[in-house]
User: Fold this.
Amino acid sequence: MLDLNDVAVFVQVVRCGSFAEAARRLGIPPNTLSRRVQQLEAHLGTRLMQRSTRKLSLTSAGQDFHDRCAEAVEGLIDAGQSLLSRNEAPSGLVRVAAPADFFDFVPMDWLAEFMAEHPLVRVDFVLSDSSADLIADRIDVAIRGGVLEDSSLIARPVLDAGLDGLVASPAYIAARGSPASLQDLADHDCLVFAHPSGRATWRLVAHDGTNAEVQVAGRLSGNTVQVLRKAALAGLGIALLPSTMTRRELRGGLLVPVLPQFRREGHGVHMVYASRRHLPSAVSAFIEFLAGKLSEYEDLPMKTPQTPA
Assistant:
């Protein structure tokens, strides 16, 4: 008789993409998972997976078998976890990927509040402006701004996209004057994302819906919006920044709008994770907690990829 435990192991290995990742999530040694899959293959009389040191790939028989049984297996697991989660407190490790300057904008008090509510949970932050590979880097949830390139991931919006606008400090405008048109930006220091040419193309939309673009350059560039924000506050030039990043400074008069009739649509902030299914209770608790906090927070800029020239 077919061992349904072996089938469940097979489905989990396929979903995780490797024996190592499946072992981490299931808390079972990788060699045990490999042996269970081999038992399943022996029972079925066919190879389901092609194994290498770096990756797994399904055979045609393995793909067909997975497609026919995965939904049923995952449904059974979901039902069991739903019952267990009613009685178990969240526990275990949550690995979170976020931009390098994440805690420049997010109060550490939030994390203290979460950990006080869930004393059995450990949190490991991986801070980098590079986009983490959730599976390879063993990331449970990533916090990302800008364009999301991997459509296979679950993306939960937590901060509205808003609009990007041109801003500068009052000191800069007093010293250099305020541009009257987009073409005037050629005579100004513009703060841009780092590029060997020192130039960038800003693609904007006017109030009447007309598309416009302008080539800009400046003496200072950087690879995060935080660098450009601080440079704008220091009077070093005109920057194109997310409204979520400049709202507070505009209200306080530390920055002023430049050519406010031109804007650029932003991309918002998302919490990204590999699957809705089989989320450990600690990961689910963290997602719900931080999503609630971020959705109420007005001044949270995330690293936004440079708009290609």
